[in-house]
Amino acid sequence: MKQLIPLCLAALPLTAQAQEPPCRLALAMALDISSSVNEWEYDIQLLGLVEALRDPEIQEMILAIPGTQVQAMVYEWSGYVQQDLIVGWTRLSTVEEIDAFADRLSQHWRIYSDFPTAIGKALEKAIDEFDRLPVSCAYSVVDISGDGVGNDGPPARDMWPALAARGITVNALVIAGAEPDPVAHYRENVITGPGAFLIEARNGFEDYPALIRGKLLRELAPQIILSSPADHR
């Protein structure tokens, strides 16, 4: 990994203020709260993400390139207008900042529970939030989770041009088992951008904590961030 650090640093934008560390990655994490997600499943998502952020290996990966930062935010999504911030863009450049971010996330309570699945609107929310980034970041990633196909609002594919224009990659963690098959739907219609990938939870939400940890390690690793562009699949 040390051999990759100079390359990654070379890709970072200059910051206007010397005290603000350059941002190597902006990561938006989107949690599914559609009606198909019960309270136990929601808690597994939220607390699984909290525990992942507190994991020493994840924290080490966030801080892998000294003198840089990661910008992170978390929001939840379901129907056409049900997309809400949990924690807005936050600088992660120290263990203390990461722990504080995880603590804020752990205090959140679910807002909605009875709305459909508007994946396109969830991605539109991500685009809006990336347009509000407080600093320029070298790479931009949406980390979206879901357990069903889109059934409300515009198709997720309609967001691909705007995502591409901003250089945003969309990765997914998909809970398998529903019909129509959400895994195929996300693979063919949702993930997009350089290095995009999908992780399948074959055993339902109980797999989520371990898989989100592995997914974050993959997204945060400098060698993955520097990967060559991929197609929509």
Automatic annotation (TrEMBL):
Mind telling me which Gene3D superfamilies this protein's record contains?
von Willebrand factor, type A domain
Where does the secretion signal sit in this chain? 1-18
Which SUPFAM superfamilies does the protein's record reference? vWA-like
Pfam families documented for this protein: DUF1194
What are the UniProt keywords, alphabetically?
Signal
Domain of life from the UniProt record: Bacteria
Q: Would I find Signal among this entry's keywords?
A: yes
Protein's name in the database: DUF1194 domain-containing protein
Q: What species is this protein from? A: Rubricella aquisinus
